[in-house]
Request: fold
Amino acid sequence: MTHQSINKAACLLIAAVVLGLPLVVRSATYLHILVLLYFYAYLTTSWNLVGGFAGVLPLGHAAFVGIGAYTSSILYLQYGISPWLGMIVGGVLATIVGILIGLPTFKMRGAYFALATIAFAEGIRVMIENIDRLGPFVLNGPRGLQIPPLNLGLKNFLFASKEPYYYIILLMLGAVLVLTYAISRSKLGYYLNAGGEEPEAAMALGVNVARAKLIAMAMSSFLTALAGTFYAQFTLYIHPKSVVSLDLSFEIAFIALIGGRGSIAGPVLGALLLRPVSDFSRIYFGDTLPGLHLVIFGVVLILVMIYQPRGLQEPLTRLYNNLVDRLVGRRVGELQA
Amino acid sequence: MNILEIKNLYKDFGGLRALNDLSLTIEQGQIFGLIGPNGAGKSTAFNCIAGVYAPTGGEIFFNGARINGEKPWTLCTKGLARTFQIVKPFATKTVLYNVMVGSFARTANRAIAEEKALEVLEYLHFTKHKDTRAGNLTIADRKRLEIARALATEPKLLLLDEVMAGLRPSEVDEMVEIIKDLRDRGVTIFVIEHIMRAIMALSDHVVVLHFGQKIAEGTPRQVASDEKVIKAYLGDEYVVSAN
Reply:
């Protein structure tokens, strides 16, 4: 048995577990929590293309979630266009906005970039909150949009049970993870990492750093917007505070920083660790201590930044590798004996 | 043929004139030395050539084409590579990763890039460090990594900015041999160096900068006995008059 075969077996095991979970977990509440967990893992993985690989800290990704959610919802509610198509339209729109945000801001460094992205996202939120109608499109300002649960079916991206949503977001998460893995091993991945770490040296080695970042931003905003449509179809109600809020942007960054930005597993691990905290604190302390989960996140983030500045994926990866080593080693020992 | 030609180059930073009417010509296959006291404008000249700064005045020709104001990454793909005086490794990445960033300049294929990078590491006797994190390297190895990355981009002209500073004498000798061998393989070398022993052993031609101006030019021997050069480095009282 080699490392690779063990890795493959582990991947298959995880795949089998996540595919089979809805057969075991019958409670709609727990399925809902799982769906949101995958949703956040997906969002953070998309964010990671810019926030992890390119070494900048975007804090306005909720804007893309909002653009995706609003675009597909408006197209569906007012024109009867299938949310699947609306999803793509929202993605394209978010890509354009992402590039427009990236063009002026990628020249900034560190905190200035983060602040600029917050400003853009907040600007978009305030606009949506204060606009009831944008030309022919009804936005409903702060009241948001409600999708009536009628005409259920795959075509309308509307289902009576949680299971279809579970498999859809799982598929999306799997796809974005494969994509991220492929990018990390490609020329673009190398260029993003190099440009994020030492832009001057990267440029001297032939890297057009700004262009690489813009490509990453375009992909990231497109993928993020797809999740927005999913969220709208899943919760059937969107309003500016839910899909374009600063809280959402921050939570994505929290998950990435604690899990480990720039790695493939980091965002998933982060979501796995933090989502239950957030859901259960809301279930048990929602009325007495609302926002408790953000306090816990803050404490965890401080601890992680002090003791594991590269995120929890690093010690966990090391642990996993040691385990595999020991498994392989023991096998070899047994054969010799 | 002239691989690099600089005509009347000026560079101002606010009121400070860092380069003042610098002209020089480098022929293909030369090892060309640029020396001068601290602050003479050597690195500024490199930064103008490599596209980091836009010159205030004057013209730069690379392989016969004017390259004023072109970006560093386009210059790199045209065959102009450089190292940095203050080394800039991608510190969290392995040595191999660092060098592959360079070799991706010529290919989008990962396997080819990796093969090319390993070739360069082998050539620089650096293979044993390929999986070391660049941030954990010694200063000598970091300098070597700078060269490895630059070589991986397959340059025609290589600008070396003080790659020997901080090296032990035996390491300097090794570096001198590497640079000579590179020249023999067809890479033209433009080198800034403070270690006189190295520059004298290496260069075919030397230019001396002082306060942004060229004060002497010629073979290493000619330059070393030049009165103005001695004055610039040591001060007036050290000039021994011939009579």
Q: What stands out?
A: Confidence is low (pLDDT under 50) at residues 333-337 of chain A. Chain A touches chain B at residues 185-187, 190-191, 193-194, 197-198, 200-209, 310 (CB under 8 Å).
